[in-house]
Amino acid sequence: MSFMEYYLINDIGLFIIPAIIIAISRLNVADFGIRGCDRKHIVTAVVIGLLFFPVVLVTAKSSDFQTYYLQAMRQSGAISDIPYEISIFGLVRHQVILITYMFAWEWFFRGFLLMSVKRLSGSIAAVIVQAVLFTVMHFGKPNIEVVSSFFGAIILGVWALRSRSMVPCFVVHALLTTLNDVAVLIHAR
User: Mapping DSSP to helix (H, G, I), strand (E, B) and coil, where does residue 79 land?
Assistant: First the structure.
């Protein structure tokens, strides 16, 4: 399966299918986190993402991150093999695909899943369920990312419930994903 096929299938599963379910059920997508939010949440998301860059810069140096993320960038056409040559068009396409993917992920986990479980079982169960499943989706990535994804998902789940929007969670996740790729490229050997 190609890089683009993988992400397209995920976007369909994480965004399109839940959106169809909501439409068929005649529910309001805004009740599932697709809504604007107070600007302070967006500013906070950007600040948090930027403050985490030094941490991302350190973790991106590890061989696990280098292997995993350079392979993804090779598959997408963002870079060529050794010596690494960056394709500007390929890197932009890579980032657009990943940002679209992050939107689908955040809407599924911090929108559709979180808000659905909250309706059935309450806020605490909703935050825990989405955090566990979000962590499982990180299996196969570097270990530090798998572990940190659980704690990040708890924080993002609470944030989505408080803001009633998945938008700030998307901003943080998309920014960290992009900064991670930048950091990996900085350390590429």
Answer: strand
- Write out the two tokens for 171: 């901003």
- Give how far Cα 163 sits from Cα of 32, 139, 144, 157, Å: 12, 28, 28, 10
H helix intervals, 52-166: 53-59, 63-76, 88-107, 114-121, 123-136, 143-163
pTM greater than 0.85 (yes/no): yes
Residues, the chain: 189
Strands (E), the chain: none
Q: What is the pLDDT along the chain (189 residues), one digit of tens a residue?
A: 888 899 999 999 999 999 999 999 999 999 999 998 999 999 999 999 999 999 999 999 999 999 999 999 999 999 987 667 889 999 999 999 999 999 999 999 999 999 999 999 999 999 999 999 999 999 999 999 999 999 999 999 999 999 999 999 999 999 999 999 999 999 986
